Every structure is written in C-alpha cells, then in structure tokens.
Amino acid sequence: MSARPRRGLSRRELLRLVPGAALGATGALRPATPPAASAAAAAPRRGGTFKIPITANVTPWPPIGLIQNLMVNKSMFNGLVRYSPVDWTPQPDLAETWEISKDGLAWTFHLRKGVVWHDGRPFTADDVKFSLDLYADPKVNSILQGNLEPVAGIEAVNPTTVKVVTKQPYSSLIELLCYLTFMMPKHLLAGQEFSRTKFPDAFIRHPVGTGPFKFGEHIVGDHFTVVANDHYHEGRPYLDSVIYKVVRDLNSTVVQVKTGELDIAFPTVAQLPALESASNLYIIERGLMDYRFLGLNHTDPKFGKWFRDKRVRQALAYAINAKGIIGQVAKGRADRSNGPLPPALKAWFVKGAPVFEYDPDKAKRMLGEVGFKPGPDGVLAKDGEKFSFAFFSDQGQPEREQTSLIVQQNLKDIGVDAQFQTLEFNNFMQRERVTKEFSAVCFYYVTPATPDLHSYWQTGGSTNEWSYSNPEVDRMFRDGLSIFDPEKRREHYRKLYTLLAEEQPVVYIYHPHELQAVSKKVRGWARTDYRDALLYLNQVWVEA
Amino acid sequence: MQRYVITRIGHSIVLLVFVSILTFVLIHAAPGGPAILLAPEMSGEQIKQAARSLGLDQPLPIQYLRWLGNVARGRLGQSYGAGLPVLGLIVDRLPATLELVATGLLLSVAVGVLVGVVSAIHRYSLVDHLTTGVAFFGMSVPVFWLGIMLIIVFSISFRLLPSAGAYSLGASASVGDRLAHLVLPAVVLATANLAQIARYARSSMLEVLNAEFLRTARAKGVSARGVIYHHALRNALIPIVTVVALAVPRLVGGVAITESVFAWPGMGQLAVDSALQRDYPMIMGITLVVSTVVVLTNFLTDLSYLILDPRVELG
User: Fold this and answer.
1) Contact between chains at B42 and A248 (C-beta distance less than 8 A)
2) CA pair distance A389, B214, nearest whole angstrom
3) Which of A123, A235, A275, B104 has the fewest Cβ atoms nearer than 10 Å?
4) Are B269 and A221 spatial neighbours (Cβ–Cβ below 8 Å)?
5) pTM for this model (two decimals)
6) A255, A277 in Cβ contact below 8 A?
C-alpha cells in the first residue's frame, strides 16, 4: 500500500467506504461494520440468496480442480481440515482433533460425530479412506495426486477414527489436506471407474456432500444453485440459497454487481474507477497466495545455459523495475515479492530475504562480468550468440500484458532483447506445461498455503515448469518434511526461502492483492481471499 | 416432386458432412488443447495421460471417423466442460435460443415490412429518407456494440431493464420478468435484419406498384387501398420470404454474439463457451444441429415458392 494510486480508490476513500475499517500490513481491511444509523449490531437474518459470479461451466467433481468447480464444491463439501480465514493455519473441519506419532509417520484424525451426508446417510471413517484413496489413485489422475504421493496407507480404525501413514515424515500433510481435499460419499461412488475425463454421471448431475449447502439446480452454462442444508452439523446456514452465475466476461460481472444482479464481483484495479460511483458496494482488498513472476526455462535449448547461471538471473532481477510495475500496473495494490510466499501468509513470510531493487547499471555490470558484450545494435551477446529471446503471457489479461511490456522495456534498457508475445490461454498452457516450447513467460501461480512448495522448486517437481535444479534447495525441502516442531520448522523454512530469494529461479516481481466488490447488503462474508471465504458461506447472511 | 425432395435430402447430407469436416479441422487446428486438461495443479505428465484417455493422441482422421461413426449411431458424446451428454445439453438450451430468435424474427419482419411498405408508398418523402437512414445505421452497427450501449443506457443509467440472463435468478418466475429480460437482446438481434428486410420490402413493393397487372386493377376501378392490400402486397411477399429465409442463418450467427453480450442461456452462448474451452464434442454437436436447421430452412423456403408463386416450376 505504499504508492498512492492515481485512479481508483485512495486509502482515505477506502476508509470512508468501509466505516470503522483500518488497513493492516497486508492491506486487508477489517470487517465492514454497519453504518452508525444501525449502531446496534443487527441479528443475522435468515433467508435470501447470495449471487456469485463464475467464469465457466461447472463439473462438480472434486478430483479435476479448475476454479469454477472448486468455488461450487466449497459450498457443498467439507474437508478434514480447512484454512483459517485469519491466517491460513489448519483448522478443524470434519476432523475435530489430530495427533502425530513420535516417529512422524502416522497421523490419527478423530472425526466429528453426528455428521450426515445430504442424503441422510452417516459420514464415517470409511468415507475418508475412500476419498483419500481416490485422490491418490494414478488412474483417477486427480489434481491432489502429487500432494498425497508420500502417503503409504489409510486405515479406518473405527467409524470416527482415521489413521494416515506416510512413507517418510511429511510435516506439511495437514496444510495440504486443507487444499481442496473434499470428502466424498463412498456409498454413492464405490465400485465405479473414474478418470480425469470420465465422471460418475449420476453424481455430477446431483452431487452429495456434507457441506452447508445441498445441490439445488444446474442449468449448464447459466447457473448452479445450492440450497441450505437443514441438517448441517454447524447448524443451518442463514442463506436459503447461493447462486453461482456463469458470467464469462469480467466487465459484465462489474456491471451486474452495480445493478444488483450479482452480490459480489472480483474486479481488477483497472475496473475500480467504474465502481467508484457505486454507493451500494464495499470495495475490499485482501492478501492472497499469489505471486507474479518472469519464469525462465532452465532447459531451453538456446538460453537455458544462461538462465541456469545464478548471476544472469540476478542481473535480470536487478534490471526489472518491480516497484514501478506495482505502481503502474497494480496501482499500488500489491506487495513486492521476494519469493513464492506473500507477506499475507504471516506465519511463513520471510521478512529479511533478499530483494533485488531496481538497478539497471548493476544489472549491466553483472552481465558484463559473466562475459556479455554489447554488439553494434546495442544487444548484448556472448560467444557470438545474442541475448535475444521471445517471452509469452496469456492473452486478455491486461495486468500481465502491461507487466510484460514494462519487463520488455526494462530488459531492452540493459541490452537484453526480450520480445513479448501474447498467446491464447490454452495454447499458452500447452506450451508452458506440456511441450515446454518457451524461453520465458510472464505468469502467475496460486499455491496452497504451506511453506512446503517442493513440487514447484525441487528437481523434477511435478509443477516445476522451469526445470530449475539445485541440490541444496532439494535437500532443504526434503529435510523440512521431517521437522514438526513449529519453531524449528519456521527457522528451517526461513533459511530455505532466503536461499530461494537469493537464487531467483524465476524473477519474483509482486504479490497482487485481491479486490472484492461486495454488496452492502451482504454480512458475515469471511475476511479473507474469496477462495477461502467460500469455505465459510454458512456464516453469510443478507439484509432484507 | 418426390424425386426433387429425395435429391435435395441427398445434397443436404453431403453438405452437412462437409460442414462437420471443416469444423472438426478448424477446432483442432486452433492452438492449445481442451481447457479440462489445464488445471493449474496438473503436471505435464498428467495432462498427457488425460489427453490419451480422451483419444486425443490419435491421428485427426481417425478421431473424425470415430466421431462420425458415433453420430451415425445417434451418439454425440460427452461434453468435456460439463461432463454430461452433449445432446441433452443442446436440448436444454434450444428453447431459450428459439425464444430469442423467434422474437427477433417476428420483430424484424413485422417492423421491417411495415417500414418498407410505408417507404415505398411515400417514395422520396421525408419519411422515406428517414427510414432509409435508420436502416443503413441498423445494417452497419456491430451487434456487440449496440448491445453494450443498450445495457449502459437502459440497465445502468436508467435501471429500467436487466442486463443479463433470461429471467431473474432466485426470484419467482413471472411472465413480466421474462419479457423484461427479452427486450434488449431481441431488439439487438432484430436490428440488423430489420434494416435488411425493410430495404427489400421497399424495393419489391416498388417493383410491384409499377407492374402491369396493377395498372389493370386500377383500370378496373379497384380503390387505391384495395390495390395495395389485395394485389400489391401478396406479390411483394415472395422476395420477402426469401429475405426471411436468408435472415435465419444470419440470426443464428447473430444470436451467438447477442447471447454472449446478454448472458442469455441459449445455444449461442454455449457455442462461444465451448469454443473458448475447446470442448470438442460440444462444438461438433452444436455445429451439426445449427447447420441442420439452416439447411432445412433453405429447403422449406424452396418448397414455399412452389406454393406462393404459380410461375415457379421444378427444373
């Protein structure tokens, strides 16, 4: 929140919008209190509908992920544990308590009693075993397969006790179980064949979970409605229903939240001016697990040999004006990034990790020391090869396009010729994930709230698109898994993320804040990013 | 007649196969794969495995023939995006699109013919020039721009009409509510065609007004009004039928954009969504249904000439 935005809302205006709000370190706002006129805290009202936008068709089948699906799944299903809306620490959900064996290999979960599925059948340890086995099954090809890979076996000890045994100590298991690991009903799914693309037909037509809302109606491509579950174990939710409306275009969501056709929207900074006049909305800013970066392909046939050189990566980091990008592109609503963990993740963010502040002269000098010399056209070259590559971003994302243009200019200033191109999203993903036909990309990542991001940075990690490889980093991620003591663990990861910041496997640029435009009628919306706020929809109510 | 119908059906089937091949090649030529394979948490290896399970690793001709074989057996496959059978999804969405297209068509024909006839009778008057100007504007204005402008004026500024959807979600259904949602998209959809129909109606009316049999009618002492309504209009209808028939494919095309702008829960929006998501089975299914509708319309138009105009003979 350092730079004062030129357009959009200033701090003062934000404070005026949300009476009694104060900005915390991450720019998150305290709860919106009712205006003074209704000073007496109104009792939550039962009834009403909450309308949320989603951007694509829904398949309510947890193993396949995808944002629109998980937004819907969070209202209908529960996990064993879930992220706290305050600091993302694991909190009880269907598991009330858990303990870890001395050797760190066995986790015992004690389940909440009296939980029933939407069809009235009791929820038991068998369902937990069934769900975790399903997510871990390579045939199912679920998005959680990597997270559960270290699990050796799951045992339903008795109806309310589950034991999870791991191949080696796995201290981040509890944090990863908070991440989209929804419990599913064994009695409706057992004995069927699933794959990444083959779903249980009857179940996705009428999904059954344990969550605060039950399936209501699904008009494919138009809306997905869930209705209050009268038998929810934390009590019936206040809302009668939640409607997820498919609105393909972000500008339309902004229009509809202004007209009241939606109750919430997630605008970009560029859309804030359009919302300034809307007196029916609060504009809220939240930290979230999201980092923006310039990703480098360390195995690129031509430039990989340079990207593998730490000095080159650091020089690129010095060359890029991250503060300028935060000011211009994010209008100050972002934090400078020193790695994948944002300041909002207070428990794990490393305050003192190195940040490469904009210094083009130093960047030039460093590249000179590596052996790059400017050619007649001003482009740096080494051994007769020009430092001239294409980098990609996904189409239709103004923030990433603007960031890329600044990066292109910054690199040009030090003699690195990086040509920016946008690619249509599916094409982009195909190149970046599957065929690896890229030298560099300007992109983003949303990760689970855990310091154990080994799959992103370890050699051969399943989401290590950069093919980054460093034995020291590998060792530290491995060692981190056998540290359970919170203090020691914090210290270990502090060292690890200090090293990673030093290393700059990719050039870390910024952590954006999430903007939420919320109708003033809405109360009890959790004070966190929307993906996690959706876990607490049972506490939301709307004024008449 | 019978032989004519059979040949026409044969032609239609060949045409539909051709269209489906073209669509198949086009969507597979688009870079990037189906969105279902692109969850951010998936590794490259997982993506490859999923593509194999969808048969996307097979050569294109094989994939196409497999699709065609399924169609011949009445199977359109399963949508990637929704995980449900394609045919059911199309059937679910068809009524909303028909509602919009039918309203748009009625609106454009009724208003278009009226405007065209009035212009023809009062040729070169102020009325004529005014309608000509408006018609040109309607023909040239892009559908999406007009839609967005109407939303800004009527939904945001005046709060008169809803900006999206076919009905208010979460409210009890009412005819008034549905009509309110229908107004803007139907007007946008009708505008382009309305202009064209008005121009056609005007020129064919003029042609008829100057025709010999009208002189005869006037000479026989039929009143001016009688001339226009009993003799002129009926003959002027034939080219208008052609225009309406031509308007159907245009409406079907326009409806995709209109539905996207107004988030109308019909086939057009489904088609756009499916294209963006690279939902191959869904795109192929929609293409097949829509092209069948268009081919059928042309066929019915040709048959209606036989009925309307005694001079048309089967060649």
Assistant:
1) no
2) 75
3) A235
4) yes
5) 0.85
6) no
